[in-house]
Design brief:
This protein is 41% helix and 19% strand. It has a single domain, classed as 3-Layer(aba) Sandwich (Rossmann fold). The relative contact order is 0.13. It is of the alpha/beta class and 290 residues long. The strands form 5 sheets. Strands 3-2-1-4-5-7-12 form a 7-stranded parallel β-sheet, sandwiched between helices. It has a two-stranded parallel ribbon with strand order 6-15.
Length: 290
């Protein structure tokens, strides 16, 4: 199997490291990071997903993993990377004599919108409510429908909130104040692990919800971390208290009031075994390194 990982960032590099028995090309927009890609066991290639000519530098592969970041917070940056970039990649590779058989596109559980704290699955209709999530929803359709129209089998992987080395953010839950809410999380090791598992098993599915076993209340996480780290429980505040402060932007208010619990039942039933089934395992290294 040959794989091109487009976007060798937080998850892409971790994926390259797990594919030690596979021919892997790690692709980034700039030459910066080439050494990290090599250290991860992949061949570094500089190419821009929005530039078809630059994509010619990538050899023919069996599978493309599209894990590109937007490179900016604006809607324009997101649309350029996720919509224009993905469309360009599919069309460019499909035109080759040996086109890829598969495409895996990494999306986000944010496309579900607000479900009042109820459970969501792969079958739950998405309800994008922001410019960013509308763009992600459009990219998901491209990953499935445009890829299929070009003879490529597309799979969308919706990642929950990623954490792990460099992204534990312990201080956020130790200092506070911690506002009430539900966290759907996934450790970086499992983000890479799920992608590798999909590459190896090739299940007949077009959408996968990638989240650990236990959506957790933020207050529960804060109290648990305080107990494990032998520190004081930080100040805890309700959503109403936070909204009453009156300093949140419209997008921040929307994030605060959005609530859902993401289910990994399909992934578990299909046979994926988690490295870190819950935050209790996932945060252990960060706690021990304090």
């Amino acid at each position: 199997m040959t794989v091109a990982v487009l976007g060798c960032g937080y998850v892409g590099l971790a994926l390259c490291e797990t594919l030690d028995d596979t021919t892997v090309y790690g692709v980034r927009r700039s030459a910066e990071g080439a050494a990290a890609i090599e250290d991860a066991g992949a061949t570094p290639i500089q190419a821009d997903v929005t530039d078809a000519e630059s994509l010619e530098a990538i050899p023919d592969v069996d599978t493309i993993v599209f894990a590109v970041s937007a490179g900016g917070r604006s809607g324009e940056a997101a649309r350029r990377a996720y919509v224009e970039g993905l469309q360009t990649v599919i069309e460019s590779f499909a035109d080759r004599e040996q086109s890829p058989e598969r495409l895996i596109y990494t999306s986000s559980t944010s496309v579900y919108g607000d479900h009042g704290g109820d459970w969501v699955t792969e079958e739950t209709p998405i309800e994008p409510t922001t410019e960013k999530t509308e763009i992600l929803a459009t990219a998901e359709r491209i990953a499935r429908e445009t890829a299929e129209a070009h003879g490529i089998d597309g799979t969308v992987v919706r990642f929950a909130g990623l954490y792990g080395p460099g992204r534990y953010r312990l201080e956020r839950y130790q200092s506070g104040p911690v506002t009430a809410g539900i966290l759907n999380m996934l450790h970086r090791d499992d983000a890479a692990g799920i992608l590798r598992w999909l590459l190896e098993t090739d299940p007949d599915v077009d959408t996968v919800l990638a989240v650990d076993d236990e959506p957790v209340e933020k207050w529960t996480l804060a109290r648990w971390l305080a107990a494990e780290c032998d520190t004081a429980t930080p100040p805890l505040q309700t959503k109403a208290d936070r909204l009453a402060q009156g300093d949140l932007s419209v997008p921040a208010k929307r994030r605060l009031t959005t609530a859902k619990r993401c289910s990994n039942d399909w992934l578990r039933t299909a046979g994926y075994e988690f490295v870190h089934p819950t935050f209790r395992s996932g945060y252990r290294r960060a706690i021990e390194e304090q």
